[in-house]
Every structure is written in C-alpha cells, then in structure tokens.
Amino acid sequence: MEEEFGVGSIRYRTTKSGRIKKDIVADFKDHDAALSYSTNEIQFMGRVYRLNAYLNCKLEKEDDYYVIENSLLDIVGTGKTIEYAKLSFAEEFDFIYSRYNKLTDKELTTKTLLARNFMNLIVKEITK
C-alpha cells in the first residue's frame, strides 16, 4: 500500500442531537500544498534570539524526515520529528548568524551579505 500525505480543511458542526461532526471541506495532496513553520523566537544552546517579526518557513515531510526551510536565509533543518527539525533549524540559524557576523562584507557573497543584513534586521535581541 502506498502512502500519500496532504493537508486539508475540516469544518466542525454540531448536530441536532449535540454530537460534533467533522466534514472535509478541501484537501490537497502533498505536491499541491506545503505546511509552514513560523516563529518569533529561536533558542539554541542557551541563546535566545528574539525576533522583531515572525520568520516564516516551509515545513515538509520528505520520506521519514521533516524539513524546515527558509529559502531567503538558505537555512534548512531536518529531523525524524518536527521537534528535531526545529532544533536542527535553530542550530543552523545560530551557526549562520554567528559566522556571517564575524566576516567582513568583502568576505561574503551577495546572497550571504543579504542574508546577514536580513538576520541583523529581524533579530531584536539575543539573551543567554
């Protein structure tokens, strides 16, 4: 049996007898839709990055792994569970933020310079 994943919209309604009934209003196969992960705080190794705005990322399930990706920052986190994917994403965010801010403008490519500038714009504060 082949498995397929997707997302959908469910409408809840109460019947005259008081029971709750669920109706699928719309469904999309995984190749037609993607879930999202959004956060305004990233925590890793005791550091907390508080953001000025929510960072929106794509969340997908590929085979047995969950993948969180932000294409603007070119950051990807993966894991067997969503929690491990979040941790992997936070680790990569922490590494990229620290690494890019140690380099001069001339040492960065155009894309990494834009990523650094965007990260510095959205990070409100870092606490330990």
Core attributes:
elongated, single chain, 128 residues, five-stranded antiparallel β-sheet, alpha+beta, 7 strands, 2 domains
Structure description:
- This protein has 128 residues and is α+β, with helices and mostly antiparallel strands.
- It has 2 domains: 33 residues, no CATH class; 94 residues, no CATH class.
- Helix content is 27%, strand content 48%.
- Strands 3, 4, 5, 6 and 7 form a 5-stranded antiparallel β-sheet that branches.
- The protein starts with 5 loop residues before the first strand and ends with a strand.
- The mean pLDDT is 88.
Question: Helix and strand layout, with pairings?
Answer:
Blueprint: E1 6-14, E2 20-29, E3 35-44, E4 47-62, E5 65-70, E6 75-79, H1 82-102, H2 110-122, E7 123-127
Antiparallel strand pairs: 1-2, 3-4, 4-5, 4-7, 5-6
Structure annotation, total helices: 2
Note the overall shape: elongated
**Between the first and last Cα atoms, what is the distance in angstroms?**
49 Å
Q: What proportion of the residues form beta strands (DSSP E)? A: over 45%
Structural class: alpha+beta
**Helix amount, in percent?**
25-40%
H/E topology pattern: EEEEEEHHE
Give the count of structural domains.
Answer: 2
Q: Report mean pLDDT, rounded to a whole number.
A: 88
Radius of gyration equals 19 Å
- Uncertain segments: none
Q: Let me know the largest β-sheet.
A: 5 strands, antiparallel
Number of strands: 7
